[in-house]
């Protein structure tokens, strides 16, 4: 197999959900109202306006200094919050810390204020001060000490110095060891410090004090990070003993998904849905599990039930519904779902590419290309990938020369782009520009000496032309050493064996490749080898099966025509 066309498949395949970390943005705010004890004097108004104008002009240090002065003079928690925020973005950590301290002191009920102050202490390495602040916070919460300990534990888990975090946790929790939360915090911080033995011991003590406590059971399962089955067994035992433990059951269901035990996972989600039948995240998981199990109708109805709900992953819902409609040949419905995906979101480009594929298959080539151009404008970083897909559309529509020229022009602007080098080599081969193919692939190998498919493509092109077979063998063997189970490379090795006259070795290698990937070109090659071995009946069966899957494949049809008269 000369070249693997992986790019289009990669862009239109479903992707796992990703947690995207979005940096905070400093945005303008309305002038804060006066605090109950603080009148909005002309001087305060003037300083707020001055600071906000400075922010608008990008003069953050000036704004930070003005707001810091205001926070000290007014001790208004709203001004202190803004002062801490502005100073943080201005990279004035001391001013930010001072303002956060005022904020937390003047708004003692604000969890956000406390966490901001504690986080800044930790970031600045003021660990003794942090420990004192956390100790005071826990001691003050006489009515909700367990909750306070858990809040403190979350804060300590953010510290980069894990050994120091353990010491602070031990000090903080020492007076409260009759509470399960104290042992949980110790376990949580020990786990972060990679002391799983101590974490396990502390969790045992937490569960001895509160046997049905779900957070401890879930964390204990996480200790088996390198042993998924042990984690699953731990959660299964807990859920079996405490069947109403919903959070633990949800963790159990997700662990079953990770272990690819989809039927069992769906059963657990069904139990969860009995109590919360309209909960969006549970419905979403059920829909994807049904899709994974091949129950497309059930998946579609479940996912469609989310369309009238407030669900944060609605773009993913539209993407998967688009795929279902796509594979059911409901073209306009599929495109409608793809167009409903928010521009700039995770699945937007994949959805637009899939919509373009549908249009190209329907013969609407220009509409498909227009869609790719619009996607490129929305996501400039995907320019090369989208250009390659446009070239594939042109080539598949009978315009290989136009496709080659499109990539050749792009390669002039980006001569070292490995994707363009590889894909233009594919098109050069179709146009019998073998000098271009070899030049591009050799340059690609030089740029990326670990690219197995570049070696394979060059080796196959030589073997297919029955030229320089020793060199072809060295190239293909190098590719095979990098990717020993890759069906495209196994196909190339089989074809090389065929060119050298070793038919049994060729048949064995091609059969292995076909088992790994039922591709029409591999079927064409294997059928030809079997035919030459006198096994025409087997060859015909393989060709007929391949024709049922890919009746228009050029290589397959050309091969069959040569042998069937």
UniProtKB/TrEMBL annotation:
Q: Which domain of life is it from?
A: Bacteria
Which SUPFAM superfamilies does this UniProt record tie to the protein?
TPR-like
- The reply to whether Signal figures as a keyword in the UniProt entry is yes
Asked if the Swiss-Prot or TrEMBL record annotates the protein with the keyword Calcium, the reply is no
Xref: InterPro entries: TPR-like_helical_dom_sf, TPR_rpt
Q: Where in the cell is it found?
A: Membrane
What is a single cellular component term in the Gene Ontology annotation? Answer: membrane
Please give, as recorded in its UniProt entry, the membrane topology of this protein.
Single-pass membrane protein
Q: Where is the signal peptide?
A: 1-21
Keywords assigned by UniProt, alphabetized = Membrane, Repeat, Signal, TPR repeat, Transmembrane, Transmembrane helix
Q: Which Pfam families match?
A: TPR_16, TPR_19
Q: Which family does it belong to?
A: Belongs to the Tom70 family.
Q: What is this protein's record name?
A: Tetratricopeptide repeat protein
Query: Which organism does this sequence originate in?
Result: Georgfuchsia toluolica
């Amino acid at each position: 197999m000369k070249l693997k066309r992986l790019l289009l498949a990669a862009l239109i395949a479903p992707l796992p959900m990703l947690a995207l970390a979005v940096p905070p943005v400093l945005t303008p705010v309305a002038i804060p109202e006066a605090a109950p004890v603080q009148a909005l004097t002309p001087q305060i108004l003037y300083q707020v306006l001055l600071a906000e104008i400075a922010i608008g002009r990008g003069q953050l240090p000036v704004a930070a200094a003005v707001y810091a002065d205001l926070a000290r003079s007014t001790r208004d928690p709203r001004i202190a919050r803004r002062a801490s925020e502005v100073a943080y973005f201005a990279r004035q950590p001391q001013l930010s810390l001072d303002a956060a301290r005022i904020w937390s002191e003047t708004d003692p009920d604000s969890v956000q204020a406390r966490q901001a102050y504690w986080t800044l202490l930790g970031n600045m390495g003021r660990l003794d001060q942090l420990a004192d602040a956390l100790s005071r916070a826990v001691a003050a919460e006489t009515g909700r000490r367990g909750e306070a300990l858990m809040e403190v534990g979350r804060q300590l888990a953010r510290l980069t110095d894990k050994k120091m975090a353990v010491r602070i946790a031990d000090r903080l929790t020492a007076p409260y060891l009759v509470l399960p939360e104290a042992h949980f915090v110790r376990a949580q911080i020990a786990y972060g410090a990679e002391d799983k033995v101590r974490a396990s011991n502390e969790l045992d003590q937490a569960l001895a004090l509160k046997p049905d406590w779900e957070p401890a059971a879930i964390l204990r399962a996480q200790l088996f990070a390198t042993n998924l089955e042990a984690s699953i067994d731990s959660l299964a035992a807990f859920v079996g003993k405490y069947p109403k433990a919903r959070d633990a059951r949800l963790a159990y269901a997700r662990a079953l998904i990770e272990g690819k035990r989809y039927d069992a996972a769906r059963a657990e989600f069904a139990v969860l849905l009995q109590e919360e039948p309209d909960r969006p995240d549970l419905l979403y998981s059920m829909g994807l599990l049904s899709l994974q199990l091949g129950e497309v109708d059930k998946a579609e109805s479940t996912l469609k039930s989310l369309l009238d709900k407030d669900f944060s992953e609605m773009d993913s819902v539209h993407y998967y519904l688009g795929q279902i409609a796509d594979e059911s040949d409901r073209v306009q419905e599929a495109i409608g779902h793809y167009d409903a995906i928010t521009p700039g979101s995770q699945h937007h480009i994949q959805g637009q590419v899939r919509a373009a594929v549908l249009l190209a298959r329907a013969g609407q080539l220009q509409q498909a290309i227009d869609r790719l151009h619009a996607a490129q404008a929305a996501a400039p970083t995907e320019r090369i990938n989208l250009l390659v897909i446009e070239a594939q559309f042109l080539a598949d529509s009978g315009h290989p020369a136009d496709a080659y020229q499109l990539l050749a022009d792009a390669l002039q602007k980006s001569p070292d782009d490995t994707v363009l080098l590889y894909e233009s080599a594919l098109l050069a081969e179709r146009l019998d520009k073998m000098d271009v193919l070899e030049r591009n692939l050799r340059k690609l190998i030089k740029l990326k000496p670990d690219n197995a498919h570049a070696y394979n493509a060059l080796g196959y092109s030589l073997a297919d032309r029955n030229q320089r077979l020793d060199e072809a063998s060295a190239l293909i063997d190098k590719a095979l050493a990098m990717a020993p189970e890759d069906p495209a490379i196994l196909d190339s090795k089989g074809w090389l064996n065929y060119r050298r006259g070793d038919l049994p070795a060729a048949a064995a290698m091609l059969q292995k490749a076909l088992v790994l990937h039922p591709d029409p070109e591999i079927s064409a090659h294997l059928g030809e080898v079997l035919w030459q071995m006198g096994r025409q009946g087997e060859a015909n069966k393989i060709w007929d099966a391949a024709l049922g899957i890919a009746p228009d494949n050029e290589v397959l049809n050309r091969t069959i025509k040569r042998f069937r008269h």
